[in-house]
């Protein structure tokens, strides 16, 4: 190797190399392969982390809500970073669900309630009401006007 430096974005390393056999020079770009933890499902089975599945669940809850695609992608990326930063080889599916609920709570309270109703398996209107009351009592709860801050 004759030269090594970070590429402008900082997520790649550019290396100038020289072939030991013929002396020809060439450039390589190296990126770290960041492995996501495996997901332990509620039935005990394990499967690879699936970002598309994470995004689809969030999009289902956010359907017809005034939240930008950029905000959704940023939330998906934050969840991925949080899971990766834990450093665990495996993670419980319920822990991913909790991360999604926190992200949705920050993005859109209606989407949060939609997701929570499925995730927590609400059985009747009283469970919806109790969750809405809990959400309304949180100090960080600030109902936005539709589309505001998104």
TrEMBL record:
Checking InterPro entries in the record gives: ATP-cone_dom, NrdR-like_N, RNR_NrdR-like
Which superkingdom? Bacteria
Which regions span the lipid bilayer?
Answer: none
Query: Does the entry feature the keyword Translocase, yes or no?
Result: no
Question: Ranges for the ATP-cone domain?
Answer: 37-127
Question: In Gene Ontology terms, what is a biological process of this protein?
Answer: negative regulation of DNA-templated transcription
| Family affiliation | Belongs to the NrdR family.
Tell me the protein's name.
Transcriptional repressor NrdR
